[in-house]
Amino acid sequence: MKQLVIMRHAKAEKAPAGGEDFDRPLAERGREEAVSVARALLAYGVKPDFALVSSAKRTLETFRQVESVMGEIPALIGKDLYNASADVLRRAIETHEKEGQCVLVVAHNPGVQYLVADYLFEGAASPDIVGKVQNGYPTATATVFEVDVAGRPVYDGIYLANSSRA
Which terminus, N or C, of the chain has the lesser number of Cβ atoms within 10 Å? Predict the structure, then answer.
């Protein structure tokens, strides 16, 4: 793996009374956000060739919107990534790091936010970007890391956040 993209799912509908959080679909705004982030990633020359995706409906729909822009991306879709902690996400990335040159992770907060903050801190990123991530990681936000020869993700300057915080 040479590049790692960590993305929080796009904006989802609220769970209906008695409905399950796992089954929440994307809102229309979320579909637009996911497409926008995918287009921006492509504009930066970032195109994942493997993905790790939570099997929750909103993460799957986010991933499908990304694919609608980028084309088909082989993926491992698993329930173990649903509301996974930063440690679980990190282990999944390490387990599958040889699956692609550019690996995309689509999952949930707070695990996504904490993992991105951990990688930023470990890679000695600027206090500005560390603070931005520590203050929140909105839906449809993606951060790109270059992976160094020792296998450490280092922030490469691409942080894409949707304009509305919700």
Answer: C
